[in-house]
């Protein structure tokens, strides 16, 4: 498995979609997380018991905005939430990875995860890719897509691990401060390299 991460507004999701265009199989940690907190799921029940029923809306669904308000800036509550979700997410990723590899032995499987480093899940990856972007570009991108104020975006970015810190864990860094064509070109080259590595690893396990 290859881990893909970056900061808010870095273009991680775009990079994942480009990898998918070239043939990679993407495991989206955020999407897995959303499924884990659907009504009736054990994770949602545990979150409700931990943070109170106020974070559940009238339809029995998780109110993500209210939960975000509860944990934002509170490290202990943030850790409590992650202790509920991360082990479940990792379990699903491993299960889906095995299923993909059984069907496509030479598949390049990429885990798209914002908290790949912070959750320490990077240790389970064969390689780690970090998307690098300057902070000004990050801020502008998030404002454009979210409608949040400049101060809100800056506060959220400052609340994350800096991209420069994430790069220390990277095997590969993709630069994304320019246009999509520039990023696509980098992804294409890296996809070819990683696909060869994935194929070589399969051959090694057979010999």
Please, could you describe this protein's structure?
- The protein has 207 residues and is α/β, with parallel strands linked by helices.
- The protein folds into two domains: 1-24 and 108-196, 3-Layer(aba) Sandwich (Rossmann fold), CATH 3.40.50; 37-106, P-loop containing nucleotide triphosphate hydrolases (Rossmann fold, 3-Layer(aba) Sandwich), CATH 3.40.50.
- Helix content is 57%, strand content 11%.
- It has helices spanning 12-22, 29-36, 42-51, 64-71, 75-103, 135-146, 150-158, 163-167, 180-206; strands at residues 2-6, 25-28, 109-112, 127-132, 172-175.
- It is globular, with a radius of gyration of 18 Å.
- The model has no long low-confidence stretch (mean pLDDT 92).
What is the CATH topology of the largest domain?
Rossmann fold
Q: What would the average pLDDT be, to the nearest integer? A: 92
Secondary-structure arrangement, i.e. CATH architecture of the largest domain: 3-Layer(aba) Sandwich
Tally of strands: 5
Report the sheet with the most strands, covering strand number, pairing sense and barrel closure: 5 strands, parallel
What is the CA-CA span between the terminal residues? 20 Å
Question: What is the general shape?
Answer: globular
**Binned strand content:** 5-15%
Order of helices and strands: EHEHHHHEEHHHEH
Tally of individual domains: 2
Oligomer: single chain
CATH domain class of the largest domain: Alpha Beta
């Amino acid at each position: 498995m290859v881990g893909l991460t970056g900061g808010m507004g870095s273009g991680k999701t775009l990079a994942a979609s480009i990898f998918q265009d070239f043939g990679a199989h993407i495991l989206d940690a955020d999407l897995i997380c959303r499924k884990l907190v659907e009504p009736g799921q054990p994770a949602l029940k545990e979150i409700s018991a931990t943070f109170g029923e106020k974070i559940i809306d009238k339809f029995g669904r998780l109110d993500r905005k209210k939960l975000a308000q509860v944990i934002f800036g509170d490290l202990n509550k943030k850790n409590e939430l992650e202790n509920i979700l991360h082990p479940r997410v990792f379990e699903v990723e491993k299960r889906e990875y095995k299923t993909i590899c059984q069907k496509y032995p030479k598949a390049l499987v990429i885990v798209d995860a914002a908290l790949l480093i912070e959750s320490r899940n990077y240790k389970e990856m064969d390689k780690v890719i970090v998307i690098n972007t300057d902070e000004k570009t990050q801020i502008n991108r998030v404002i454009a897509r979210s409608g949040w104020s400049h101060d809100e975006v800056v506060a959220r970015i400052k609340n994350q691990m800096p991209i420069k810190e994430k790069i220390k864990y990277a095997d590969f860094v993709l630069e994304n401060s320019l246009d999509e064509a520039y990023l696509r070109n980098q992804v294409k080259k890296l996809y070819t390299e990683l696909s060869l590595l994935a194929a070589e690893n399969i051959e090694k396990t057979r010999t």
